[in-house]
Amino acid sequence: MAYHNLRLLCFKRGALQISFALFLVLLSGCGNDISDLNQYILSIKAVPKGMIAPLPEIKVVETFMFNPEGLRDPFKPLVQPEQDEVAEQSTGGGIKPDTTRRKEELEAFPLDVLKMVGTVSMNSTLWGLVKADDGTIHRVQVGNYMGKNYGKIIRISTEKIELIEIVLDKPGAWREQQTSLGIIE
To answer: Residues 153, 125: contact at Cβ < 8 Å?
Structure first.
């Protein structure tokens, strides 16, 4: 057993010596002439050393103390929401849109891009078919809302969909206007 291990060790050592000899032969192929490298190093060392520019002079900046007393807070809106509500209430109990209700899908589109494309009668109820600007066809009935001006559907016929819109007449004053969406043939 010891003889076998010794023989294996000698084999490994021999393989290492052969590898080292092969490395030296390959390295000698690169050549020992490094005169061009020495010449380049000497030319770089011969260049005179330059002067380092002095650091620029540091300018002293005057300190400034900000005094926000008496100035408006830039993080608050110019008009307070409470003031808006008071202004709306002071104009009287007239017509106002219900801003607390959940908006319906067709209220995302202006009325001029919506097109009535037909009607469907189901369970004795006439539904209007409205095509939106994105190509989707929606089914609507009386009481649904559509358009940007809080338009509520009041009547559906086979020829048109009639709506009552609530539009801003002047600041704080709303008015109703009737409009319709005719069928596109």
So the answer is: no
Question: Which pTM was predicted?
Answer: 0.50
* Residue 92: how many other CB atoms lie within 10 Å: 10
Higher pLDDT, 177 or 1: 177
What contacts 114, CB < 8 A, 6 or more positions away? 106, 130, 131, 132, 133, 146, 147, 181
| Domain 96-182: which CATH number of 2.60.120.260, 3.30.230.10, 2.30.30.830, 1.10.1740.10 | 2.30.30.830
Query: Which ranges of the chain does DSSP label H, i.e. alpha helix?
Result: 2-28, 35-46, 81-90
- pLDDT tens digits along 67-86: 888 888 888 777 655 545 54
**Which residue type is seen at 114?**
L
Q: Are 140 and 146 in contact (CB under 8 A)?
A: yes
Which residue is listed with tokens 């011969």? Answer: 46
